[in-house]
Specification:
With 147 residues, the protein is mainly beta. The protein has one helix at 6-9, and strands at residues 11-20, 26-38, 41-52, 56-60, 66-70, 73-84, 87-98, 113-128, 132-144. Strand 4 (56-60) and strand 5 (66-70) form a beta hairpin. Mean pLDDT is 80; it is low at 101-110.
Length: 147
C-alpha cells in the first residue's frame, strides 16, 4: 500500500488491469480515485473492484487423496480521507469474498468466506506550549466475519 494524498492526483485517475489464466478464467481490477488539494486542505476518495474467477485447483491432502476446488477472489474497497494542518479524518468500507487463503489451499477452509466491514478514524493534533504537542485519536472498526 502506497499512501497518497489528493494533491498527488489533482483530479480523476482510473487504473484498469485485466488478464486471463485461461480462456475460461478472466480476472480484472479497476481503481478509480479522485483527489484535490488546496493550501491546508486535502481530499482523497478512492474505490476499487477486483474480480478473479481463478482456476480449478487439484491437490493432495494428508490422506493422499486428490481434492479439487474452484478458486475465486472478489473484493471491493471504498476509502475517503480528508486532512488539514492539524486534523485527519478517514472512512472506509471493505468487502471480500473468496474460496481459499494464500497460494495453496488449506483444506479446513475449503469453503466460501466473506469478510465485510467499515472503519473510521479521526485525528487532531494540537500544540501545548512551545515545545509540546498533543494528539487525540478516535476510531472504530466493524467487521462481519463468517462463523
Amino acid at each position: 500500500m502506497i499512501p497518497r494524498k489528493g494533491k498527488d492526483i489533482d483530479g480523476v485517475e482510473i487504473d484498469f488491469l485485466g488478464g486471463v489464466h485461461d480462456l475460461e478464467s478472466p480476472h480484472e481490477r479497476i481503481l478509480v480515485s479522485y483527489g484535490r488539494g488546496k493550501e491546508n486542505f486535502d481530499l482523497l476518495v478512492s474505490a476499487e473492484l477486483y474480480h478473479n474467477q481463478g482456476y480449478n485447483f487439484t491437490g493432495i491432502d494428508k490422506k493422499v487423496e486428490e481434492r479439487g476446488m474452484d478458486y475465486f477472489n472478489h473484493y471491493g474497497n471504498l476509502m475517503l480521507k480528508m486532512s488539514g494542518d492539524n486534523y485527519k479524518v478517514t472512512f472506509g468500507y471493505f468487502n471480500q469474498e473468496k474460496s481459499k487463503f494464500g497460494i495453496l489451499p488449506i483444506w479446513s477452509t475449503n469453503s466460501e468466506t466473506l469478510y465485510e466491514g467499515f472503519y473510521g478514524e479521526g485525528v487532531i493534533n494540537g500544540k501545548v506550549g512551545e515545545r509540546s504537542n498533543i494528539t487525540s485519536r478516535i476510531g472504530y472498526t466493524s467487521e462481519d466475519f463468517p462463523s
